[in-house]
Specification:
six-stranded mixed β-sheet, DNA-binding, Arc Repressor Mutant, subunit A, alpha/beta, transcription, LysR_subst-bd, 300 residues
Length: 300
């Protein structure tokens, strides 16, 4: 049933097999056996993947309930072993880690004594993939409103900033989005949501941006900015330490303001934790401490 649900969510046998870490022929065989058992096709096959049939849609809705009940039953059975602590794998982005990394661990110990915390730091898109594979239980991620396999709650809107080498005269000086065309930019790969957001706005305004460097390393990006006239568009949390040390300057971007939205997300089929109340309180405290330290944010 889990294999079937994954194929529905991915819409593609190859992607579903990768997410499940099984061979595609084995996955295809499982689906065909399920169709034979039910006596009806569950998918229409085409060159771009698969589309769920009406019968498949009915089964999928039931499968989600069954899988959630199975997970809850497993958690309850495991709770019979009193000495075993529940494990929570929490995913956060580098900018969140940069602002409250230390608080995450101390707050976990205070608020969740019966929970073992496993902390993962990755970009949002990798955390979303981790949730889909059940490698991550809960994640604080950005701009995931269109992810069908997630149950996500929007928390705050966060402004993105122009980051450049330190210049005291730039303090509190805003820059319009159109003025980005005057600079050489260093950005990360094209899967990065911030880059996608910046490039989409530039296309909408018919603005040509000059991307001088594409750099995967945060430390390398910051070093390039510190030693040249190259700039970047980044979140505050990523550069907070460098701003405090006066190694970099950050300026608000206006006309328009470029924002991203922070969500707390878990898998759509994820059941309740054994320590659901404590875990929810823990996440609420983390978000509160993050927003306290984040300038230019507003509740959704």
């Amino acid at each position: 049933m889990r294999y079937f649900a994954q194929v529905v969510e991915k819409g593609n046998m190859t992607k579903a097999a990768e997410a499940l870490n099984v061979a595609q022929p084995a996955l295809g065989l499982q689906i065909r056996q399920l169709e034979d058992l039910l006596g009806t096709p569950l998918f229409d096959r085409h060159s771009r993947g698969v589309a769920v049939t009406a019968a498949g849609r009915i089964l999928y809705e039931r499968a989600k309930v069954i899988l959630q009940l199975m997970e809850e039953a497993e958690n309850e059975i495991q709770s019979l072993t009193k000495s075993k602590r529940e494990t929570l794998t929490l995913g956060v982005t580098p900018s969140i880690m940069g602002l409250i990394g230390g608080d995450i661990l101390t707050t976990a110990r205070q608020e969740m004594p019966k929970v073992f915390l496993r902390l993962v730091e990755e970009p949002s898109f990798l955390l979303v993939e981790g949730i889909a594979r059940n490698d991550v239980d809960i994640a604080l991620v950005y701009d995931v409103e269109d992810q069908v396999n997630l149950r996500s709650i929007p928390l705050v809107n966060e402004e993105l900033l122009l980051v450049q080498r330190y210049d005291a005269s730039l303090a509190d000086r805003e820059i319009t989005f159109g003025e980005l065309a005057k600079f050489e930019l260093v950005l990360v790969h094209d899967r990065d949501p911030i880059r996608q957001k910046v490039e989409a706005e530039a296309r909408n305004r018919d603005i040509s941006l000059e991307i001088a460097y594409e750099v995967q390393s945060l430390n390398a990006t910051l070093d390039v900015i510190k030693g040249s006239d190259v700039v970047s568009v980044m979140p505050y949390g990523t550069v907070a330490a460098a701003l405090e040390r006066k190694e970099l300057s950050a300026r608000r971007i206006v006309s328009p303001i470029i924002q991203r939205t922070l969500y707390v997300s878990r898998h759509a089929r994820r059941g309740r934790f054994l320590n659901e109340e404590a875990i929810s309180r823990f996440v609420e405290l983390l978000v509160a401490r993050f927003t306290e330290r984040l300038p230019g944010c507003s509740p959704v």
